[in-house]
Specification:
By secondary structure, the protein is of the alpha+beta class. It is built from two helices and ten strands, in the order βββαββββαβββ. The longest helix is centred in the N-terminal third of the chain and has 12 residues. The structure holds iron/sulfur cluster.
Amino acid sequence: MSDKRTFTCIVCPNGCTIETVFDGDKILEINGQQCKRGEEYVRQELTDPRRTIASSVPISGATLPLCSVRLTKAIPKREIFNVMREINKVRLAAPVSIGHVVIQDVCGLGSDVIVTKNLPKATEA
Ligand code: SF4
C-alpha cells in the first residue's frame, strides 16, 4: 500500500518542497527536488532519519552562564532524547574555546559534542 508525504529538504538553503509517493522505504514517485541530493535526503528520511542537535550547557567562571554546543555529525532521530540526557549532565568551567570536545562519541553514535563559542575566564572586578 502506498503513502504520500511532503518533505522540506534541509540539505541546502533552497528548502525545496518534495512531494513523494512511497511504499515502505521504496520511492514510487518524487517531484519538486532541484537536485539529486533532495532524493537522497528523502530516501534517508524514509529509512534512517537523522538530526543534529545544537544546545547550551552551564559554564562557571565565564562572562556568560551558558555555553553553546553542537554535535559534529547528525545522529539517528530516535536517539535525540538519549543524547540530550547526556548533554544535560555537562557542566563546563571557563575558559573553553570553539571545537573543545565536551563528550566524545556520545552514546556510541560516532558523533562528538563540541563547544561552539569561545568563553574566556571572567576577570574579577
Ligand atoms: S533538493 Fe537540492 S536544491 Fe533543493 S533543497 Fe535539497 S539540496 Fe537544495
